[in-house]
Amino acid sequence: MTNGKPPILVFGATGRQGGAVARALRQALWPVRALVRDTAAPRSIALRDAGVDLVQGSFEDIEAIRAAMKDVHGVFSVLPGNLAQEEEVRAGRSIADIAVERGVRHFVYSSGASAGDKPTGVARFDAKPRIEAHLRNLPITATIVRPMIFMEMLVRRGFGLESGRYTFFLRPDQAMQLIAVDDIGKFVTAIFADMSRFGGETLKIAGDTVTGSDLEAILTQAAGRPIAYARFSEEALMANPDLGHMAASLETGPLADHVDLNVMRQINPEILSFRSWLAADGHKAFEEALGHEAA
Question: How many domains does the chain have?
Fold first, then answer.
């Protein structure tokens, strides 16, 4: 224990979301435990050096998960995005079931803002509502977070930045909400710190709202040269199930339901705008997407 706090078990701590949660919890002086496949891997060693207690195991290793949950206060559950739908559902339900069995007090599950009531045909979107439904029927205090679109997604290669343009699924006058992955860690830490407020809640989380025209202005300023914005053609969106679903969801689906950023700031006063994220944590990835080395 640290300052009288029992540990939080973090899944995916060597990845983006889990890593952000582990860092934020440690900064708030929570003891953190992480389930990792290889304790000798560089990312695992970095976690240990940051004071995280490591337990070797995998999503398939039920006994390792049981052992990792011994005497923990809370569990943060996030699953890799490359799992088949049935595999993700099975793992997500199993982790929650074991948490009930082990007497975990507060379970936080990271779902997705694209999760909705209607099947989309995209495995990584359709698995999450099924896990959410299972979790709501369990005798455990749980909080479901649904992060909006990751800022990190916007600076992947393939959207045309290296050619002085930017193509995305947003119309120029259409708004979408974004979140920096590091902010997910800060939100989750605030949730664990106030179980009475957040227990039983399903909470969308975001840090900024931008339109397609905003993206053109922000990217142009960050690049120091003109970046012209355009929306993907309908044919291109139809050919890519992930992008096509998110574009449709911005029209009438879950992504069209925006959160109040003032409420977000009350929970996490340090939320990053897309502009501020590009100038800091996102600078390297942005420079690489432009086609040159980060300064």
Answer: 1
